[in-house]
Amino acid sequence: MGVPNSNPTYLSAVTSEFGGGGSMRAAAAAAGLSAPDGLAEFKGLSATTDISTTNYVVINSSNNSTYSTRDMVAGIAFLQVQLDLRLRRQDNYVYYEVKETNSAPISLYYPVGGGSSSLSTSYVTMGRFDLGGVTAIKMNWSETSTPAGSSGNIIGSTAVGTYAASDNSWQTISNGQSIGARMTAFATAECYQTTTSTCTVTMDVSARKTGYNDTTLGTYRHKLRAYAESNACF
Amino acid sequence: MKFYTDTTYTIERNGAGESTSITWTFKDYNNYEIQKVEKVVDAEGTKEMIDWPVLSEDDLVATRSATYNIPEADRTTLAHGETHPHNHNNEIAFQEKYKKWWNDWELSL
Questions:
Q1: What is the DSSP string of B40-102?
Q2: Does A151 contact B50 at a Cβ distance shorter than 8 Å?
Q3: Which string of b and e fits A25-49 if b means at least 16 CB within 10 Å?
Q4: How far from each other are the two terminal CA atoms of chain A, in whole angstroms?
Q5: Are residues A149 and B81, on separate chains, in Cβ contact within 8 Å?
Q6: How far apart are CA A13 and CA A45, in angstroms?
Q7: Best label site of A31, A73, A109, B54, fewest CB within 10 Å?
Q8: pLDDT tens digits, B29-39
Q9: In chain B, which residue's Cα lies nearest the Cα of A148?
Q10: For A6-20, A75-89, B54-68, which range has the lowest pLDDT when averaged over its residues?
């Protein structure tokens, strides 16, 4: 977990992190520090490393990782577009996976290599942590408002994962278990109205295991669009 | 996390009655409930319970607006009818204009 980044720094904390059998010089050598040695040099240092990760879709940019859209034209129109987002431990990996809840006419994900591929009602892996024995995982989401606003939600759901994901909270899991959330955009229209609801959620997923730094896969961007058009007024 | 935007609009017109600009008002809410609401669903007056969002003004978190200046070629004297019976052809023609204004505004952002 690293040496605390605050004063005072204790030799016991340093040797607990870097070893050295009580010798500050030995601990400093393990930390890659040169003599002369001082406890203050160890503040905030960690002997651990990040968990290895693999990404399969576009992340960390203004571009979408996934995009789904559906239109409805009727006298009275109510429609939803939904996406299931799941973080699942299956040793020796933890997978971040996405699927459509119900099939939409246009539903895409954007691979790292460029272009697009179709999402379906079967899970597609967005990325993964390349490590077994992960003890806790986290989904951290936020909705990005557009100038036109949007209508919808993102809510943890046991219909998606073993446990309902709780926003920005570490959740303990065992092998084969998962946490999940469902994202929804909806639109309504009546009496010749038209309504467009464009909903964008950014999602950070993280994993935790002793001996490693808490590690995130990156920021995924999921966009849903629902369009409702009324062609009558009763 | 729930979010809902209620969108309304007003249209400015010139002396000839042509639409010159449209101003949308966006009211953002941080909660809503989807409830069964009775709606008339056809010209025969059939009523059905339809899923529909229900809002509380207590959940209003922001009110915003945006104005789009309508190019001359896209202006119209048509308007959305406020009373029954509606002129279907006029409503659809106005709707086509409205959709173009909205799409062009979104593309301009």
A1: E-STT--EEEEEEEE--GGGEEEEEEEEEEPPGGG--S-----SSSP-HHHHHHHHHHHHHHH
A2: no
A3: eebbbbbebeeebebebbbebebee
A4: 65
A5: no
A6: 11
A7: B54
A8: 999 999 999 99
A9: B26
A10: A6-20
DSSP assignment letter at A12: H
DSSP helix, strand, coil percent of chain A (3-state; round to 5):
10, 50, 45
Contact present, A185 and A151 (Cβ < 8 Å): yes
Half-sphere exposure of A83 (CA within 13 A, CB side): 32
Chain A residue numbers touching B64 (CB-CB < 8 A) = 147, 149
Per-residue pLDDT at A149: 87
From the list A222, A97, A95, A81, the residue with the least C-alpha distance to A152 is A81
Q: What is the pLDDT of residue A1?
A: 61
Omega within 30 of 0 (cis) for the link into A147:
no
Length of chain B: 109
Q: What is the pLDDT of residue A115?
A: 95
Interface ipTM? 0.93
Determine the residue of chain A that is closest to B80 in CA distance: A192
Q: State the Cα–Cα distance between residues A204 and A73, nearest whole angstrom.
A: 35
Stronger pLDDT, A136 or A2, i.e. the higher one? A136
Please enumerate in sequence order all residues whose Cβ is within 8 A of that of B9, keeping only pairs 6 or more positions apart, or say none.
B22, B23, B24, B25
Q: How confident is the model at residue A114 (pLDDT cuts 50, 70, 90)?
A: very high
Q: What angle do CA B57, B62, B63 make, to 5 degrees?
A: 90
